[in-house]
Design brief:
- With 704 residues, this protein is mainly α.
- Among the domains are: 2-92; 351-464; 575-702, no CATH class.
- The protein has 39 helices and no strands.
- α16 (310-324) runs parallel beside α18 and α35 (623-632) runs parallel beside α38.
- 28% of the residues are buried.
- Pfam families: Symplekin_C.
- Residues 1-62, 665-704 are annotated as: Disordered.
- Residues 52-62 have a biased composition (Polar residues).
- Residues 686-698 have a biased composition (Basic and acidic residues).
Length: 704
């Protein structure tokens, strides 16, 4: 302020000098003049101060030097505070200024000039601004205002006319470098801005347009993320999870990941596993985090669980069974879908793979809820061959997973009619490599004794039954087909692991001979086949075993029907047993074997096979039976006569035997006394002839 007063003092001095030269003026006049000038200067100062206070009050907290941003550069320069201050200084410099004059000056608030633009010009300016904001990302990143930029782009995109295609520009920018250009954040802001336009529903046209732009924009970005990033990348999944809404086209895109079509199977087979995993992972996250989308996403997962491609199907089944089925909100829907798909297998008559495709999901659910297994039993009884094959393929893994649970035991105790074969496989699986639980063993025994007289269900647990239980079921076991019986035979003889067998080989063979075909209702051929099966196991049914069996059977009363057949088989299998067999034949003579017509036939055949060792046994027969034997087996007469004609043997034979052999003459006898013997011999011969004709098929099979 001191420097501002220096020119005033100089001027006063000049005025004083000039006025001294004018006549009529004195010093008092000069003082008055100066006093008036100082008063005017003081008044100006007060006015300026008042204006400053008024301006400060109107602008509030705004700086006194700030100007409105809408004012143009030229106007700002014309009305700048500096120019105003300079002008004031030039005026004030001509008058005295007191020491309290302010150092700053603020002009009163002025309105910005309004410039009217045509619509085309407005659109052009908006487009240029929109484009400039898009392209200014590098500078924006340096200034730290990227969030503001993203919001501006989303808002301006809605305001711009659709013919300028602002979303195309945004798509191009976003997809150019999705990660580095904050593509996810910008995409979400755009989607949420468009979604707000849809929800506001200001008019039908605007809402429809916004919905269309929303779907196209979303789909384009999602497809690009799918094609540009590897399946392990989370960008697509994150976008679907955080978007305000998923249109149907985007859900279709997600479904194509989880359920690839035939063309994609041919073109992208190597990527299926990872792509399907990517899609199913997204489906899982959507179901858990977005309840409104739960039904749509669950439908995708279920369709993938019945996909024709096994790799796709198994991935989806693991998701549905392990993670979705335990959720109470969707478990019933999953269960109903699996049942409906299972029941539809009736249409798959000849395609095993098609049956597996439709049944795999329910099999997986059975491991989580064992009571569902009964549904498979109901389908099985009316199923085609292809369906039964598919079921049998799944059973081992399923049953091992379930174990002897209470639900499974309940199904076993009351299986649907017609499912016996399936039940047998279930029991076989439960007993493979492990002893059955006491509960399972008791359940099977009760079922066999009450509802299901099918010995097949006992086969898996035979080694774990008591010996008397096995013996009581032996007729039914022998009635099985030969392949099954051989399996049963090994199970019984080998016994359970790390335990002794319940029945020895000799006990098994004796039990077979104890079967009465008429009483037990078992065909005779089944019994003979069982004996043959035993003799085929030479390492088990050894020579000592056979000798032991024959030694016990010959003491039975009555003799077993197949005893002589077994004796003949023993000779063929073990020729060294001939001497032992002769002892057996001698014991049979003492037991009057000829009183058993069916066994008598076998006795004579055995004697023929074992000649000349059997001659000593034949000579032990009573004369009538010897004569009958020679008449029935003519091949024995000549060698037997030659044998008996030896002096050392002939001397030991009674005359009656020699007469039968024709070695000695028969003394004259009363015809009335000889008639009964002849009639008896004839009767025996006729009855045995009938037996021979009856047993001829069986004898031909036993000759081996």
């Amino acid at each position: 302020m001191e420097t501002d007063c220096l020119p005033i003092s100089s001027d006063l001095h000049e005025v004083e000098n000039s006025e001294s030269e004018i006549p009529g003026l004195d010093s008092s006049a000069q003082n008055n003049t100066v006093s008036e000038d100082m008063g005017a200067s003081s008044l100006v100062s007060n006015d300026i101060e008042a204006a400053t206070q008024e301006q400060a009050a109107s602008s509030g907290a705004t700086s006194m030097l700030d100007l409105h941003p809408s004012v143009s550069t030229e106007k700002s320069e014309e009305l700048s505070p500096k120019a105003a201050i300079n002008d004031s200084n030039s005026v004030i410099s001509s008058m005295p200024v007191p020491a309290s004059f302010p150092s700053k000056l603020v002009l009163p608030k002025m309105a910005a000039p309004v410039v009217d633009l045509a619509d085309d010009e407005k659109d052009q300016l908006q487009t240029l601004a929109f484009t400039r904001i898009i392209e200014a990302y590098k500078l924006i990143d340096l200034s730290g205002s990227s969030q503001v930029r993203l919001s501006l782009l989303a808002c301006l995109g809605v305001e711009l006319p659709s013919e300028f295609e602002p979303w195309k520009l945004l798509e191009k920018h976003i997809l150019a470098d999705y990660v580095n250009l904050e593509g996810h954040e910008l995409t979400l802001r755009v989607l949420y801005r468009l979604f707000r336009e849809i929800e506001e529903e200001r008019d039908f046209f605007s809402s429809t347009t916004a919905a269309s732009v929303y779907e196209i924009f979303f789909q384009t970005v999602a497809e690009t993320l799918r094609d540009s990033f590897p399946p392990s990348d989370k960008s697509l999944s994150r976008l679907l999870l955080e978007a305000p809404s998923l249109p149907q086209s985007v859900l279709n895109l997600l479904e194509s990941l989880c359920c690839p079509g035939n063309s994609e199977i041919a073109d992208k087979e190597l990527q299926h596993g990872d792509r399907v995993t990517q899609g199913l992972s997204t489906v899982w996250n959507l179901i858990m985090s977005r309840p409104p989308l739960r039904e749509s996403c669950l439908k995708i997962a279920l369709q993938s669980a019945v996909h024709p491609l096994e790799e796709v199907r198994m991935k989806a089944i693991r998701l549905v069974a392990n993670r979705l089925y335990p959720l109470p909100s969707v478990s019933q829907q999953i269960e109903d879908f699996a049942k409906e798909t299972m029941l539809s297998v009736e249409g798959a008559e000849d395609d095993v793979l098609e049956a597996q495709r439709r049944m795999s999901l329910l099999f997986a659910l059975c491991t989580k809820k064992h009571s569902l297994f009964r549904q498979i039993f109901y389908v099985y009884k009316n199923a085609s061959e292809a369906v039964t094959q598919a079921v049998h393929k799944h059973i081992p893994i399923l049953v091992r997973t379930m174990g002897s649970s209470s639900e499974l035991l309940g199904i076993i105790s009351d299986p649907p009619e017609g499912s016996e074969k399936l039940l047998t496989q279930v029991l076989q699986t439960l007993t493979e490599g492990a002893a059955p639980s006491p509960e399972l063993l008791l359940t099977i025994q009760r079922l066999y004794n009450s509802k299901l007289k099918d010995v097949d269900i006992l086969i898996p647990v035979l080694p774990y039954l008591q010996s008397d239980q096995i013996l009581s079921t032996f007729p039914q076991l022998v009635n099985l087909n030969i392949d099954k019986f051989q399996t049963v035979l090994l199970r019984i003889i080998q016994g359970p692991p790390n335990s002794s067998p319940l029945l020895s080989p000799s006990e098994v063979l004796i039990a077979i001979h104890g079967i009465d075909p008429e009483k037990d209702g078992i065909p005779l051929k089944k019994v003979t086949d069982a004996c043959n099966a035993c003799f085929e196991q030479r390492q088990i049914f050894t020579q000592p075993v056979i000798a032991k069996v024959l030694n016990q059977l010959v003491e039975q009363i009555p003799l077993p029907l197949l005893f002589m057949r077994t004796v003949i088989q023993a000779i063929g299998a073990f020729p060294a047993l001939v001497e032992f067999i002769m002892e057996i034949l001698s014991r049979l003579v003492n037991k009057q074997i000829w009183k058993y017509p069916k066994l008598w036939v076998g006795f004579l055949k055995c004697a023929l096979l074992t000649k000349p060792q059997s001659f000593s046994v034949l000579l032990q027969l009573p004369p009538p039976q010897l004569e009958n034997a020679l008449n029935r087996t003519a091949a024995l007469r000549a060698p037997l006569v030659a044998h008996a004609s030896q002096p050392n043997i002939k001397s030991t034979l009674p005359r009656s035997i020699l007469v039968v052999l024709g070695i000695a003459s028969d003394p004259p006898q009363n015809s009335t006394q000889s008639q009964p013997t002849q009639d008896q011999t004839t009767e025996t011969s006729n009855s045995e002839k009938d037996v021979q004709m009856e047993e001829k098929p069986n004898e031909s099979s036993s000759a081996s």
